[in-house]
Design brief:
The complex is a heterodimer of chains A (154) and B (428). With 154 residues, chain A is of the alpha/beta class. In chain A, 32% of the residues lie in helices and 24% in strands. Chain A has 5 helices and 6 strands, in the order βαβαββαβαβα. Chain B has a single domain, classed as Cytochrome-c3 Hydrogenase, chain B, CATH 1.10.645.10. In chain B, 45% of the residues lie in helices and 17% in strands. Chain B is globular and about 65 Å long. The chains are: A alpha/beta (154), B alpha+beta (428).
Chain lengths: 154, 428
């Protein structure tokens, strides 16, 4: 896993419909050319973030979020904004994304990614067990991929 | 002094709930573990579904212990069809269950419960001075998740379990790749038990009736009779004759009692007390070296029972992989026929009972599911009653902490039992 300089990490639960949006963006990104040194990961268990954020200068996280926006909107956030804004990344049990980032920073202050960007794809709270994304969230995937690629090129 | 201790939102538990303790003078007059996570009606939505769907539907009840739901559902449906697992399928199921116990117990021990003993509000604060412990816990948890990924297809809500066995059996090579990390983790688990045994435990004991499965040979996972420390010894199919679920106004989860006797305890501490002699030699020896033994009636020491069970699970996982031969076929066929089947397995938090009435067309006519947290709720409240006198004399913040810790001893999964938590200690 070492050697990559940027990790793009899609987070989500694909069996809970739109909660799988982060994973869907990571998968869609694999269809595109990304700069050398970029690793793409898909995780369901947020505790995995602790190790994935270590040993790299930069990470881009993509996760479904519930916010005061209609489903299908993209939000570019810092981890600090995650705590202060009215945005809730979805996590079933265990640590949430903000907690996992804080835990990683406490455990490895010197080696954790200095820059962590979070792309939140707004969804409605998932109410059904389905592997399919809603039309609004599905339609936002290309824009999310473009945004990740722009961040990678930038 | 009259007062109320209130926890509006209990933290470091799975799900949503609250706790209120009301005092009249220095006497506690009411303890309510209020579970307000809405009921989920899984038993109702199983009606009319095919029997083969039961494991995957019920697995959705919990993201921490989906394997437990799959195992209880499979065993109940297989019981209805009169089918029994052969030794290879049984071993593969036990290996999958080892993965879930490891992942679930490590999450609770290291991230949720250890901060109570080390005096931190959460694992993030604890990580500053005890980073090695948190790292070790996360790595051990990951080793458990890896077992579930290889056998189950993915680490959360495995998709490879089916009634009768598995869709596909992993190859020996798939499993052997797990061994180096599992061997590291077994040693790390032994080290963890020694570390945790050095914690300071509140001086508290109650005369519990412990309830767990008991198997003639093995530490219990999927099979055995239901036994208790008060002499209960019944077949799984007699569960509902012995245990009763009761409605209580303050909780959306039902409370379980033993008919005519009252509350009881299931889970790691119960299994440890009732099945110490069924532990593998490595787990028993590690417990003896750490000075952890039975009987143990201190619920705060449940973290030690979990730690022993984690050693047990790593050791058994290694043994199963060492002698693994893929089951062939990967699943047994089930004959059709109207029947009622019963299944009871040991979820990480305790007994998980399922009953299904299946019609001749293979559709489920009736389902009954009793999760461990619902069974332990009465005992959690009784522990709080017992410890309340001590709380009355403590500063508010310390009292609230100890009350919450008392709840966390049980690693309650409120999502499962209804399916979170808030503490109020009130004066009158």
């Amino acid at each position: 896993m070492s050697g990559g300089r940027i990790r793009v990490i899609g987070i989500g639960q694909p069996s809970a419909g739109d909660d799988g949006a982060g994973i869907a963006v990571a998968r869609a990104l694999r269809e595109h050319r990304v700069p050398a040194g970029v690793e793409i990961h898909e995780i369901t268990d947020t505790t995995r973030l602790v190790e994935l954020l270590e040993g790299i200068p930069r990470a881009i996280l993509i996760d479904a979020v519930v916010a005061d926006r209609a489903p299908g909107n993209l939000l570019c956030l810092t981890p600090e904004e995650l705590v202060t804004q009215r945005v809730t990344p979805l996590s079933s049990h265990g640590a949430g994304v903000a907690e996992a980032i804080r835990l990683a920073r406490t455990l490895a202050p010197a080696t954790v990614a200095a820059t962590i960007s979070l792309i939140g794809l707004t969804i409605a709270p998932p109410m059904h067990c389905t592997r399919h994304l809603s039309p609004a969230v599905s339609a936002a995937l290309p824009r999310a991929v473009t945004l990740v690629r722009r961040l990678l090129d930038g | 002094m009259a007062r109320t201790i209130t926890v509006d939102c209990l933290t470091r538990v799975e799900g949503a709930g609250a706790l209120t303790i009301r005092f009249d003078g220095d006497k506690v007059c009411e303890v309510k573990l209020r579970i307000f996570e809405p009921p989920r009606f899984f038993e109702g939505l199983l009606r009319g579904r095919a029997r083969e769907e039961a494991p995957d539907i019920t697995a959705r009840i919990c993201g921490i212990c989906p394997v437990a739901y799959q195992m209880s559902a499979c065993h109940a449906i297989e019981d209805a069809a009169g089918v029994h697992m052969d030794e290879r399928l049984r071993s593969l199921r036990r290996l999958l269950y080892c993965g879930e116990w490891i992942a679930s117990h490590c999450l609770h021990m290291f991230l949720l419960h250890a901060p109570d003993f080390l005096g931190y509000p959460d694992a993030i604060a604890m990580a500053g001075e005890h980073g090695h412990l948190v790292r070790r816990g996360l790595r051990m948890k990951k080793a458990g998740n890896a077992i579930m990924s290889v056998i189950g297809g993915r680490e959360v809500h495995p998709v490879n379990v089916k009634v009768g066995g598995f869709y596909r059996a992993p190859t020996p090579k798939d499993l052997q790749a797990l061994l180096p990390e599992l061997i590291w983790a077994r040693d790390a688990a032994v080290e963890t038990l020694v570390d945790f045994a050095g914690f300071e435990f509140p001086d508290f004991e109650r005369d519990y009736e412990f309830v767990a499965l008991r198997h003639p040979r093995d530490y219990p996972f999927c099979e055995g009779r239901i036994v208790s420390s008060a002499g209960l010894d019944i077949d799984v199919r007699d569960y509902e004759d012995t245990f009763e679920e009761q409605q209580v106004a303050h909780s959306t989860a039902l409370h379980s009692v033993i008919r005519g006797r009252g509350g009881y305890v299931c889970g790691p501490l119960a299994r440890f007390n009732l099945n110490f002699d069924r532990l593998r030699p490595a787990a028993r020896a590690a417990a003896a070296r750490a000075g952890v033994g039975v009987p143990c009636h201190n619920p705060f020491k449940s973290i030690l029972a979990r730690a022993v069970e984690v050693i047990q699970a790593f050791d058994e996982a290694i043994a199963i992989i060492d002698s693994y031969r893929p089951p062939a076929p990967a699943a047994l066929d089930l004959p059709q026929g109207a029947a009622t089947g019963y299944g009871c397995t040991e979820a990480p938090r305790g007994l998980l009972y399922h009953r299904y009435a299946v019609a001749a067309d293979g559709l489920i006519r009736e389902a009954r599911i009793v999760p461990p947290t619902a069974q332990n709720q009465k005992s959690i409240e009784a522990d709080l009653y017992s410890i309340a006198a001590r709380l009355a004399d403590m500063p508010h913040e310390a009292a609230t902490w100890l009350a919450e810790q008392t709840v966390r001893n049980y690693d309650p999964c409120i999502s499962c039992s209804t399916h979170f938590l808030k503490l109020e200690i009130e004066p009158r």
